């Protein structure tokens, strides 16, 4: 898949998920993601591997955000499958992110320390943007929220990248 197509699709979906939720349309991003999936499959020769990552991250990723909710670091707007769990749009966000890992984000999993830094910096930046666009709120201490998000994202992304290196080494994107 062309990296630029992958980057643009991710950004469009990210904004639909976050801005849609900010406007009370938390269904918009997940619907667009479902519409994107067949197109993604057509544009890549690795759809099966991408969709396996998608399935793993829509299960594993929301647990990190649920931990953020339970510890008071973040509260999300939008409907959730269970009270106190990450909302549907966050689950879709993890699926959207998964579709970048073998394409536009492939560079990150070549080095777990790069992945750790990317997660520790990129995660909080995305959450700040999400709060400013009305999709979430930080807990009582923004600094503590950002530190917890940086730690969680740094660790999860570096572990994910270690797993990708081990399981996908040499597999073309």
Biggest sheet statistics: 2 strands, antiparallel
**How many individual helices?**
6
End-to-end Cα distance:
7 Å
What is the oligomer described by this structure? single chain
Number of strands: 2
Mean pLDDT: 92
User: Which value, in Å, is the CA radius of gyration?
Assistant: 15 Å
Give structural notes:
The protein is mainly alpha-helical and 173 residues long. It has 6 helices and 2 strands; from the N terminus they run H-H-H-E-H-H-E-H. It has helices spanning 3-22, 28-43, 47-70, 88-98, 112-132, 142-168, and strands at residues 74-76, 136-138. The longest helix is centred in the C-terminal third of the chain and has 27 residues, at 142-168. It is globular, with a radius of gyration of 15 Å. The chain starts with a helix and ends in a 5-residue tail after the last helix. The model has no long low-confidence stretch (mean pLDDT 92).
């Amino acid at each position: 898949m062309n990296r630029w197509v992958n980057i643009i699709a991710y950004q469009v979906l990210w904004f639909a998920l976050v801005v849609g939720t900010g406007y009370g349309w938390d269904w918009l991003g997940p619907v667009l993601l479902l519409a994107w999936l067949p197109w993604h499959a057509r544009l890549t020769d690795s759809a099966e591997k991408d969709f396996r990552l998608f399935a793993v991250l829509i299960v594993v990723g929301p647990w990190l955000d649920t931990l953020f909710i339970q510890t008071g670091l973040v509260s999300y707007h939008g409907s959730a499958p269970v009270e106190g769990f990450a909302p549907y749009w966050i689950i879709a966000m993890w699926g959207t992110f998964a579709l970048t890992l073998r394409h536009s984000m492939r560079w990150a999993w070549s080095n777990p320390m790069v992945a750790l830094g990317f997660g520790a910096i990129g995660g909080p930046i995305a959450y700040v943007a999400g709060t400013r666009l009305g999709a979430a709120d930080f807990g009582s201490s923004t600094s503590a929220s950002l530190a917890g998000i940086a730690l969680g994202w740094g660790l999860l992304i570096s572990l994910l990248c270690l797993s990708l290196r081990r399981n996908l080494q040499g597999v073309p994107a």
